[in-house]
Amino acid sequence: MTIYFEDITLGQTAQFRKTVTEADVVLFAGITGDHNPVHTDEEYARETPFKGRIAHGLLTASLVSTVLGNQLPGPGTIYVSQIMRFTAPVHIGDTVTASVRVTTLDPVRHRVTLAIRCSVADTTVLEGEAVVIAPRRG
């Protein structure tokens, strides 16, 4: 369901939760061509500071797109920009919560700025800001 620009309020929030699976990481590597062994090779990844394979950072960031495109504002939303900082790894089997919160509304350009955060339990794994163009009525 689309939330039109006219109905969005400052502080409004939405979230999406997903457990990252082996299949998610393998398919993401196949789709993007990013076969970095820290994502795809357990033996290699065990020797890194992460002590095992981790999900691609942009796989985690894409969960923010899920919230924006499906919930707030929802279908018809146009992604303009995203600033993000990765703060901790996501391991296969972790459940990630992607959250957005409206921080600014630009009625002239119908743009919405949102604080974004992805977390695993109480640990922030990604934070930043997204700007979208929200659909308008009629």
From TrEMBL:
It comes from the Bacteria. InterPro entries: Fatty_acid_synthase, HotDog_dom_sf, MaoC-like_dom, UPF0336/Enoyl-CoA_hydratase. Transmembrane segments: none annotated. Residues 12-113 form the MaoC-like domain. CDD domains: R_hydratase (cd03449). This is MaoC family dehydratase. It comes from Chitinimonas lacunae.
